[in-house]
Design a protein that fits this description.
This protein is an alpha/beta fold. The chain has one domain: Response regulator (Rossmann fold, 3-Layer(aba) Sandwich), CATH 3.40.50.2300. It contains six helices and five strands, in the order E-H-E-H-E-H-E-H-E-H-H. Strands 2-1-3-4-5 form a five-stranded parallel sheet, with helices on both faces. Helix 1 packs across helix 5 and helix 2 runs parallel beside helix 3. The radius of gyration is 15 Å and the shape is globular. The N and C termini lie far apart (32 Å). The relative contact order is 0.15.
Length: 145
């Protein structure tokens, strides 16, 4: 049986969060742990829920997506992140990439395409690190490399 991939959605637009939640519910292998409409709540919930994947709008109120990514980078459990934004500048794409964003998608976007990207991220991650070969973050090899 395939492991369910947990997803957390941080976006201030109710239509986006409900639309993506519904699309992921229809897709196999995903479970939405929750949503947040601002950066402060997103940080607290990501720390608490520890999702496998984070879908993060970079234009959140209170703390923007870059601030959320900086906080996530210091967490013990770091979700794989797909970021969305209504506009993308060179600075935004560079900052997002430097903070570990796996994919950056321009909004508005097709929910089916977004789910496809999440499936690609999930499959790519399991191919890189099957459960039996996931690197132990406390091993000396992981710490050195």
């Amino acid at each position: 049986m395939e492991k369910t991939t947990t997803v957390f959605i941080a976006d201030s637009t109710e239509d986006f969060t409900s639309g993506l939640s519904a699309a992921l519910q229809r897709a196999d292998g995903f479970h939405v742990l929750g949503t947040a409409s601002d950066g402060d709540l997103a940080i607290r919930m990501i720390e608490e829920k520890k999702p496998d994947i984070l879908v993060l709008d970079l234009m959140l109120p209170k703390k923007d997506g870059i601030a959320v990514l900086k906080k996530v980078a210091s967490m013990e459990h770091k979700p794989i992140t797909l970021a969305t934004s209504v506009f993308i500048t060179e600075y935004v794409s560079s900052a997002a990439a430097n903070l570990g964003v796996r994919y950056l998608m321009l909004k508005p976007c097709d929910m089916g395409l977004l789910v496809e990207r999440l499936e690609e991220i999930r499959v790519g991650e399991s191919l890189r690190f099957p459960a039996s070969r996931r690197p132990d973050k406390n091993s000396i090899e992981t710490m050195v490399t």
